[in-house]
Amino acid sequence: MLIVSGSPDNAEAINSVLRNRGIPAHCTRIASAELFKDHAGTGYSLAVVFSDEDVNLLQEVLKIRDLMDKDLPVVSCRQVLDPDMLSADIVAGAADLVVLGQRQRLYKVLEREIRRSRMAWALRETVAVASSYREQLQTFMAGSADAIAMVQEGIVMEPNPAWSRLFGYKDEDAMLGIPLMDLVSMDSQAALKGALIAFDQGRWPGDPLRCTGVDAKGRPLELELLFEAAEFEQEPCVRISIASGAREDARLLQDLRDAVNKDPLTGFFSRQHFVKLLEADLSQPLRGGVRALAVVRPDAFGNLVEMVGPIASEELLARIAQVLRDHLQPKDLYGRFGGTAFSVLLARGNTRDVRAWADGLCRKLAGQLFEIGGKSIAATCTVGLAMADSKSKSIDDLVAQALDACSGGRNKGGNRSEYSAADDASTRLEESDRLWIPRIKQALIESRFRLALQPVGSLTGEDVGLVDLLVRMIDEQGDEVLPSHFLGAAERNKLIKNIDRWVMAASMAWLAANEGKNAFVRLSQATVLDESLPGWLAQQIANAGIEPGRMIFEVAETAADGQLKATRDLAEKLRETGYGFAVEHFGVGSRPLQVLNHIPMDYMKVDGSLMQGLARDHQLQQTVKELVAEAKQRNIRSVAERVEDANTMAALWQIGIEYIQGYQLNEPEVVLSEEPDV
């Protein structure tokens, strides 16, 4: 503290007051305003001026303070606390007026001003550190090879030079204030909006978001965006970075190896290398779902060659390949199969998902208009599909069936997807059932069924412990058998109700052992028609000792639509008892609104086939958005099935879906080893 007084006793009096109250102070006494010049601005916390010693002393000190250290508080000390003098001193610039004789007030004023001085000092330090950090950040951003931009409320606030160069702008100033959505294609906007919403809620998983950017000249840019929390002008923002072409040595080496094995025109794997990768992939067992080989060929490509010429037709083929690449998921394996044919190995939830992917590709290509050689060219394609889930099917057979299916589709006019005749389920049902019926019966006798758990994640932050309980059969060798292999045969041969009852009893046992969890449990159409079900359930749940509300029974939309009255009656009875009710695989039937209007439900589970290509398909997004809106009007919560990548999850955030399940969240995991009493 700086004491301006001619008397040493005054300085000692101030020091004594503070020391006795536990505030250690170092007091420096000076006798005049002239000496104050030598001390102002040198780190003092507070100055006390004994103003009565000279009529001009306080004004002179305040004048010097205002010139040299405006943040230094000055307290006037006089013999009498006169209200008029208090007002005059404060107007002159003093923080307050004190009297030595009023020690309580003296201490409170000095303590307050010391605290204020410390806070001002801390603020200055913080601002200095922030300024230094900002300078370092700007230096880092300016020198970074990665494109980086600060985005606040959807607006680009501070791009670095690499960001501006990437999008084709002359400098950073030219990009300030541009909406982020203007920098991506229409197909990518829903996914980007959803990702930003998820990030703002703290629920983005940290995966890079794949999207198509648009540069200043309207040219497409394939981007992977990374999101980080940051601050801009002391307000929260999102720092978005786009990695440069620099890669780790291992990744670069892999890219070089891939380049040797890729077609230079399209970037797809060459036929020989694709077949090698295909064999390796198919040699690995599938954890769930189905695999299919797709052969894709542009329709009437010879006519297109005549329109644009042989040289320009190569560019057209490369552009078609880009449309196909954009329609793939990261895990898909793809190659050029010679000539104008492309091939893709797909892993999807079921055959509907495979067909939905193929139909989506046909629709997307047909909607494109290519500017080639000064001409506007429209093209379509045919997709031939062959299922790869048969152990007896060789690679040669698989490829031949996909090629035959593609040829068959082209003979029907093209612009369509076509399954191989060898995969027509109706020709195989009888033989399949002969194999499966005795195996299912024996598994029921020996209790060789297990539950598999798949978590259901919330996109709204509300965690209600939802899981989906699926059934697995254990074969004679102890291996899991997926339900797609045996449930069809069980339904056709009146064995499905026995499996359903095992699943319901096992689900109750699992819920009893896992407090805080709630489970979806599916019912077949045969069980929906079983009038004895409510009574059996009442006895089972009483024995299990769990609340009915922890079980949400679900029925497929097609089954509900086919048995509308029976499903409605069962749903009403179950909900009256306290159970939840859901309709799964929603959106694939012919009358979804009728099902919504007639079946009381708590959850609507949107079919996974509608997730195929959703992130970049406006038509699909609108379809799902309309279903979700209809559900919300009825207070029905929505779940998206088979969500397999971050871009789809981001689009669902934007659409308003409340829950998701699928491989993006977790693969099913077998959880029950002990058998329930059924």
Task: Name a few traits of the molecule.
Beta-Lactamase; 5-stranded parallel β-sheet; 44% helix; single chain; 11-stranded mixed β-sheet; alpha/beta; 4 domains; 678 residues; 23 helices; Rossmann fold; Alpha-Beta Plaits
Largest sheet: 11 strands, mixed
Helix content: 40-55%
Relevant CATH superfamily of the largest domain? EAL domain
Helix run count: 23
Shape: elongated
Just give the CATH class of the largest domain.
Answer: Alpha Beta
Question: Which class do the helix and strand fractions yield?
Answer: alpha/beta
Distance between the termini: 85 Å
From the 3D coordinates, which CATH architecture of the largest domain would you assign? Alpha-Beta Barrel
Q: Oligomer, anyone?
A: single chain
Question: What is the domain total for the residues?
Answer: 4
Range of strand content:
15-25%
Mean pLDDT value = 86
| CATH topology type of the largest domain | TIM Barrel
Q: How large, in whole angstroms, is the Cα Rg?
A: 37 Å
Low-confidence stretches: 246-251
Q: What is the number of beta strands?
A: 28
What is this structure, in a nutshell?
This protein is α/β, with parallel strands linked by helices. Helices cover 44% and strands 21% of the residues.
Structure write-up:
The structure is a single chain. Helices cover 44% and strands 21% of the residues. It is of the alpha/beta class and 678 residues long. It folds into four domains: 2-124, Rossmann fold; 144-242, Beta-Lactamase (2-Layer Sandwich); 266-425, Alpha-Beta Plaits; 429-670, Alpha-Beta Barrel (TIM Barrel). Strands 18, 19, 20, 21, 22, 23, 24, 25, 26, 27 and 28 form an eleven-stranded mixed beta sheet that branches. It has a five-stranded parallel beta sheet with strand order 2-1-3-4-5, sandwiched between helices. It has a five-stranded antiparallel beta sheet with strand order 7-6-10-9-8. The radius of gyration is 37 Å and the shape is elongated.
